[in-house]
Write a structure and sequence with these properties.
Belongs to the binding-protein-dependent transport system permease family. Belongs to the ABC transporter superfamily. The chain is an alpha/beta fold and 588 residues long. The chain is built from 22 helices and ten strands. The strands form two sheets. Strands 6-7-8-3-9-10 form a six-stranded mixed beta sheet, sandwiched between helices. A four-stranded antiparallel beta sheet has the order 2-1-4-5, covered by helices on one side. Helix 8 packs antiparallel against helix 10. Bound molecules: adenosine-5'-triphosphate. The site of adenosine-5'-triphosphate (ATP) has 16 residues, from helix 11.
């Protein structure tokens, strides 16, 4: 029996606007208005300034506010408001350059280190340490000695050295993000590191980026105006905020008003940057508390391969699509390496549903993950080899594994919700996988059609509607169907389904198992069903192996295993599954 799942009512969208809710924080909101207002006024200086910024009126020097000069005039009779408006341009351009360099370098270095880890991480962390140990302001002054009065060169240098602090923050966040299941799912579907970083990691970090950016903007403004004050950043007589403070300081005994006006604008802007940054950080914390943190995968998985044993080209006997021979997996631990899968071997034929059954901790999941090249970084295949359709997949380099994952071999995990990226619609996540498999030539329409086909093939009613939704808008059963549709996108020869029904309620479980069987019948692919539930094996599998503490204790057809179990562990498992013991009528 196959079931058709209809979408539940749509709920809100998942993408988070980092400014959402800022209006409930009056200080941060007012500060944002100040920053935006002053920036816009500066950009529109040619329209708003009542006078040219360099026009002198020696008859009206230091005149104080009037209708003609709303903020008065300076020592040469130049209009203060116009000079402030025009002077904001080099100042804010300088801040903008510094912030841009800060964000680009901080983000790139942090993401590369945090996502790629290994030697890339070590090299980048060493570079960051050096950058942080160098006094950025001194280097900036040294750069100005070469590029005299170059605002851009100075702020570029400042942004670069300051980016080390941001890179550290981003690195830590990225290390946490790469442990998320949707990142695993993206890797399973064959996406490379660059694509995963751009599409799945970067959007999550942009919200976090805003807080340090606003805080750094305040610092950059203070340094830029300091350089202007010293006459190092903007050549006179062009106005700049720092330069105006410098001019005002020369006559502050005579008339402190000018210092108050120019210093006040800098102080206000700098304070506002800081307050917006603080407000955004508070909002971010509120959101984290409200969502209770992120969902992490229980076992981290990064590709880690160790070439195993000599080539064994004859392994695919009996027309098997997958063969595993003398296969062991061990984990490095604080004490000594621990072997968790010990010299196992099995073959899986096309069109067969093959069960990997055993109690928790018996090594089922790590066996499945290792076939995809997704063992945790402290784990490795220590002996033996696995062959997929004539190709030895054990020990393949990551780049080649990327081509195989999602294409020849695919994974359906037990937690569909966390295997999908909540930021993107189902359609866009499917489109990404479809484009990567390269099976669909043509434009958007062809991809849309393929999405429709895939969602229909997993018996989802109204596929167009499902494609428009975000993961949190679907039920658990629908999500698992979407995950299966994704796995089917590359027309895999082998589908590994790791406890695909564990997170679902009983009625939905039956529907998913039905679906797997019907897909096997339609597509002729092999399915490896990893489960601790003998009922699921009895119901769905053709053959199975029973694993205990990393070893295979029983292998055979489902009839053999249930009617003629040989190993005491298998008998114990059957006994502990009352529905089977009853249904099958007997235990040997
Ligand atoms: N990163 C790791 N470091 C050390 N040991 C690990 C790591 N990941 C898994 N293991 C160990 O490997 C063994 C096999 O784990 P695996 O997840 O394959 O079990 P399983 O049979 O799938 O059980 P379950 O159904 O509970 O997931 C367990 O003893 C587990 O503690």
């Amino acid at each position: 029996m196959t079931t058709v799942e209809a979408p539940p009512k749509a709920r809100s969208r998942a993408r988070i606007n980092p400014f959402a809710g800022i209006w409930r924080r009056p200080v941060a909101a007012a500060s944002l208005v100040v920053v935006a207002g002053i920036s816009v006024a500066v950009i529109l200086a040619p329209l708003l300034a009542p006078h040219p910024p360099l026009a002198q009126d020696l008859l009206h020097t230091l005149s104080g506010p009037s209708a003609d000069h709303p903020l008065g005039t300076d020592v040469l009779g130049r209009d203060v408001l116009s000079r402030l408006l025009y002077g904001g341009r080099p100042t804010l351009v300088g801040v903008g350059v510094a912030v841009l360099v800060y964000a680009v370098f901080g983000m790139s270095l942090g993401m590369l280190a945090g996502y790629l880890r290994g030697w890339t991480d070590r090299v980048i962390v060493a570079v960051l340490d050096i950058m942080l140990s160098v006094p950025a302001v001194i280097i900036t002054l040294a750069v100005l000695a070469i590029f005299y009065q170059s605002n851009v060169a100075a702020m570029l240098t400042l942004g670069f050295f300051a980016s080390a602090g941001l890179a550290r923050i981003i690195r830590s966040s990225c290390i946490a993000l790469r442990e998320e299941l949707f990142v695993d799912a993206a890797r399973v579907s064959g996406l490379g590191p660059a694509r995963i970083m751009a599409r799945h990691i970067l959007p999550r970090l942009t919200g976090q980026l805003l807080v340090p950016i606003f805080l750094f903007s305040g610092n950059a403004l203070a340094i830029q105006t300091g350089l202007g004050f010293l006459g190092l950043a903007t050549p006179a007589p062009a106005p700049s905020w720092g330069g105006m403070v410098g001019e005002a300081a020369q006559i502050m005994q005579q008339d402190p008003y000018l210092l108050f006006v120019s210093g006040g604008v800098i102080g206000l802007m700098s304070l506002s940057f800081g307050l917006v940054g603080d407000g955004l950080r508070d909002l971010e914390q509120d959101r984290r508390q409200a969502t209770g943190g992120r969902l992490r995968r229980p076992v981290p998985a990064t590709a880690s391969q160790e070439s195993a044993g000599p080539s064994d080209g004859a392994v695919l006997a009996d027309g098997a699509v997958l063969a595993v021979r003398d296969y062991s997996i061990a984990f490095a631990t604080a004490q000594e390496p621990r072997t968790v899968v010990d010299s196992i071997g099995f073959t899986v034929r096309p069109g067969e549903i093959f069960g990997l059954v055993g109690e928790s901790g018996s090594g089922k999941t790590v066996t499945g993950l290792s076939l995809l090249g997704l063992l945790p970084s402290n784990g490795a295949v220590t002996s033996g080899s696995a062959w997929l359709a004539g190709t030895r997949i054990t020990g393949l380099p990551e780049r080649e594994l990327q081509n195989i994952r999602g294409g020849d071999i695919a994974l359906v995990s037990q937690e569909p919700m966390v295997a999908l990226d909540p930021y993107f619609t189902i359609g866009s996540q499917l489109a990404e996988v479809i484009r990567r498999t390269g099976d669909v030539p043509g434009g958007k329409d062809a991809v849309r059609q393929r999405i429709r086909e895939l969602l229909t093939s997993v018996h989802l009613r109204d596929p167009d509607d499902v494609a428009r939704r975000h993961p949190h808008e679907l039920s658990g059963g629908m999500l698992q169907r979407v995950i299966i549709a994704m796995a089917l996108a590359g027309s895999p020869k082998v589908l590994i389904a790791d406890e695909p029904t564990t997170a679902l309620d009983v009625t939905v479980q039956a529907g998913i198992l039905d679906l797997l069987r019907s897909l096997r019948d339609e597509h002729g692919m092999a399915i490896i069903l990893i489960t601790h539930d003998l009922g699921v094996v009895a119901d769905s599998c053709d053959r199975a192996i029973v694993m205990e503490q990393g070893r295979i204790v029983e292998e055979g057809s489902v009839e053999d295993i249930f009617y003629r179990p040989r190993h005491p562990y298998t008998k114990k498992l059957i006994e502990s599954t009352p529905s089977i013991a009853r249904t099958e009528g007997r235990i040997a």
